[in-house]
Amino acid sequence: MTRSLEEHARNWDLRHGDFADNDFLYDVYSVMRRDAPFAHTDSPFLSATPGGAWVATRYDECYRILQDWQNFSSNPTPEGAEQLAGDLVITMDPPRQQSFRKVLNPYFSPARMKALRPQIREETDRLIDRFIEAGNGDLAQVAWRQPGIVFFKYLLGMPIDDVPLCIELTDTALNGDTDETRMGAWGSLYQHLHDAVSTRTTQPPRDDMIDVLLNAEIEGDKLPFEMVVANAMLLVQAGLETTASAMSFAFHYLATHSDERNRLIDEPEILPRAVEEFVRFAGSIHGIPRTVATDVELSGHAFCPGESVIVNYAAANRDAAQFPDPDLCVLDRQANRHLGFGAGVHRCLGSNLARLEFSVGLEQVLSRMPDYALAPGTDATFHGNSITRGYRTIPVVFTPGSRRT
Ligand code: HEM
Q1: Of all atoms in ligand 1, which is nearest to the CA of residue 246?
Q2: Would you say residue 31 lies in a domain?
Q3: Which of 251, 351, 362 is the pocket-test mutation for ligand 1 (most atoms within 8 Å of CB)?
Q4: pLDDT for 325-338, tens place per residue?
Q5: What's the alpha-carbon Rg for the chain, to the nearest Å?
Q6: Of 35-39, 186-190, 216-220, 398-402, the least confident
Q7: What's the family (predicted)?
Q8: Is residue 186 part of a domain?
Q9: Domain annotation covers residue 330
Q10: Ligand 1, atom nearest to 101 Cα
Q11: How far apart, in whole angstroms, are the C-alpha atoms of residue 67 and residue 70?
Q12: Residue 82 has pLDDT above 80, yes or no
């Protein structure tokens, strides 16, 4: 490591090369949580905020900020707003945000998600079929492709041929090396969705999310076209990289912990708990900002209007004050009130979908490749410098099986 834990904790910079290591970042979070209720960063990951931002890393403060949208607004700072393509559900406050959620929520209801299970199983099987006969393959290809295919085909209403391009653009927009590269990728993703939504305005309506956005009325007004595109883009970003990273972590963890893999096979009833634990332990987001709206004090810290505070869900999820043995992945963890999907009014819109994709991904991999393990002599590729961290390659070997689709 090029800097000590304390140096990193004084000025947290998620893009720093030291955080390519999976565990080191969590060691830094321990120091941040221990030292003060709010740490600081000069270089927030998602937006360039003059003066940097405060960072909440303890469970209690994160939870209280998420519940208090009046004082901690989701409206971005003026500099943050400049980087956005428009008004997004995630950057609004109630009551406008709540009326937008009323339009979107039915598309992610538990009943609708349950009905999707057979299709998700089939799409997952199709991806596994690509290598099942060979006895070796890359499980990251399942983790990264499955959420995109499912979301584009069954909810959003975009061609699945667009999935690889949208994954690549989303990834570069978040993780590209320079500001120019990142902004260029945002622009290309926006243009791509702009063209896709434009085409849809001339076609007969279908029952999908693009039509929902095109016809949505928020507080009595239809959404301007740019807002439809910007929110479609938010859904693409929010739905792909998050679930893919979380699932890639679980596939890798089970590839390197054969006892845990066998336990999940022998005790399938603990799978729902295991999914929650994977999201808590390594699948949650490493920070989304709030803007301080009024003079407010929290845990002895006085915040001023206009300041930016990052809620670090991943750090909160390792807080020993909330979770016994927080640095252990306990597959059947009880009382797991993690913040992986957020809390309060902005709680994740797609959590039911993410859980379903994740469960089906695990079920199909474990039932079709029950003895899978990391391929000897190879390494998985981990990408750690991002608000969603995960594996980009997971080379595995297993007893070959037969195709299903
Ligand atoms: C493991 C996967 C996922 C994780 C860890 C995750 C995490 C989160 C978190 C922490 C928030 C709260 C943001 C805030 O407090 O401002 C959020 C909001 C959101 N998520 Fe997810 N998410 C996941 C999957 C998905 C999926 C699959 C979709 C949609 C297809 C989605 C769509 C959204 C949207 C639209 C919001 C904004 C909701 C609002 O502002 O009211 N997410 N997500």
Answers
A1: 1
A2: no
A3: 351
A4: 999 999 999 999 99
A5: 21
A6: 216-220
A7: Belongs to the cytochrome P450 family.
A8: yes
A9: yes
A10: 41
A11: 9
A12: no
Task: Indicate the top mutation candidate among 210, 242, 284, 357 to test ligand 1's pocket, ranked by most ligand atoms within 8 A of CB.
Answer: 242
Overall domain count for the chain: 1
Distance of CA 238 from the midpoint of ligand 1 (Å): 6
User: Do the domain assignments include residue 33?
Assistant: no
Residue type, 390: G
Ligand 1 centroid – CA 228 distance (Å): 18
State the residue range of the domain holding 387: 86-283+320-397
For residue 279, the CA-to-ligand 1 centroid distance in Å is 12
Q: Are 292 and 307 contacting, i.e. CB atoms less than 8 angstroms apart?
A: yes
Q: Best mutation site among 47, 67, 348, 356 for ligand 1, i.e. most ligand atoms within 8 A of its Cβ? A: 348
Residue nearest to atom 30 of ligand 1 (CA): 239
CATH code, domain carrying 182: 1.10.630.10
What pLDDT score does 330 carry? 98
Contact criterion met (CB below 8 Å) for 216 and 222: yes
Confidence label for 72 from pLDDT (cuts 50, 70 and 90): very high
State residue 35's pLDDT score: 97
d(C-alpha 360, C-alpha 120), whole Å: 7
Per-residue model confidence as pLDDT tens digits over 240-256 = 999 999 999 999 999 99
- Which protein residues touch ligand 1 with a CB less than 6 Å away? 66, 74, 89-90, 97, 101, 151, 234-235, 238-239, 242-243, 246, 279, 283-285, 288, 313, 340-342, 346, 348-350, 353-354
